[in-house]
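Hi R.,

Here are the chain sequences for the assembly we discussed:
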Amino acid sequence: MAKLSLMFENKLVKEVPIGSKPVRIGRSPDNDLVVDNLAVSNDHARVYFESGRLVVEDRGSLNGTFVNDLRVERATLHDGDSIWIGKHHIKVDSIGDAPLQYQSAKKANAPMINETMVLDTKVRREMLSQAAAMGERTQFAADRIKVPTIVVLSGKTDSKEYILTNKLTTIGKSAMATIKLKGWFKPPMAAQINQRDDGYYVGSGAKVPAVNGVAIPGPTRLNDGDLIEVAGIRLNFIVRE
Amino acid sequence: MELSALASRGESLQIASGGATDVGMVRTNNEDSYQIVPALHLYVLADGMGGEAHGEVASSLAVETVVKHCLEGQENPSAPLNGEAKPGLSEKSRRLASAVHLANQKVFASAAQHAEQRGMGATLTAAWIDDMNLSVGHVGDSRVYLLRTGVLQQLTSDHSLVAEQVRRGILTASEAESSTMQNVLLRALGTQPQVEVDIEQVGLFPSDILLLCSDGLTRMVTEPEIAGALQSEPDAQKAAEKLVKLANEGGGVDNVTAIVVSLKPEPKGWFSWLRRGAHKSASGNGTAGGH
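And here is the predicted structure of the full complex:
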């Protein structure tokens, strides 16, 4: 995903991703890229995609918009170009790889939020469109997050291995359980594993599971290699690359 | 408020639900919307964003679109589906995903057509109970919780910047809770022409309690407090109202909405057993029974 980096005297001031909406550049604070210098007009320029090409358009600014050394009213941008506005210049990055942009988008968001309270709807709107552009890149990157496996070490179950792709995995005899127990006197719902943002937590059902030999006091976060014992079965929690 | 029974697989369940919403103690308008459709056991919640009254426009449009599309699907199962269908999903899950895709398109189109609505969006979280199966459709940072055997479990992942940072190990869960960036969403309805929709399928058990809520609840009330309120108040409607009250007592900095759905096994005994038999034969395939 493309981005713009605002530079002043070769120092990075701010980065913004270029999404489906034009990036508005100017001195007034409601721009996407605010350039705080009197030589810059309130509504100075815009950068946006048009039929797959990245375009910069001067908004009738007093001191003009320059691409590399050329004053332009409207020009197609290429990767590595510099847009000069007053003493600032904006580096154009129209390629870039996803992880790098994830980092840069974070930096771009940070100052906006520190400057302004989140209840300001205008800022929130701006952030939302920026964050949405960032989300576009991150939402399909779920495969980078590791999915753990439960391996059955002993006890009768309907499978020997389970991949924990769901938010909730239930262990029990019930037809609704994910890890189905077989045999007499097994509870319908013996225990459950919940995927949270910071990891996988095992919690009690009709039974209190033990993790590494210790009965859990409440929902307990699992670590790679943990041994879970519940309702007469032994399970190994494994996080593979 | 809903009270109806669901009989299948030899289990007989009563489903009761209730919802409550409030503007909170700080905001001047309520941008949350929700709807309960008892006939379908469908529960839909959206938290709108965008200046002036446009958050309300986005959230109510999203909720209405989802409900309407699910009702249409119920009447005509071959009605066309929106968005790509992932393999392995139940019919209800596919319909729900389709409904959320459609809601995204509608909110996006409305924002594109009306200049003053530029930037409006909404979260959307929906739960649909069919037989003993729950389908959850989700975009944004509203949540679905399941309280089972006293354990409160989250069935949705927040599509927020801080949650993503926690998943990537950049922040801890407690750091995320105190972050000033909690309002930054990575996914919402109406901000892009297409959106990825999370679908989760969960098998239900008797005595499960479901909670759908906007972030106005989870920012103000801790999970143990939520679990405590759900356990101490058996009436679904009163539980929803209690949660909203707790959020307001905690500061109420945002709009707050809660929908509580409780599943209860029907009383045991030879009389209810007989009634259950009659119910089963009356409904033929035994998949559903609304009172």
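Residues 149 and 208 of chain B are 8 Å apart (CA to CA). Chain B touches chain A through 53 residues (CB under 8 Å).

Let me know if anything looks off.

Best,
T.
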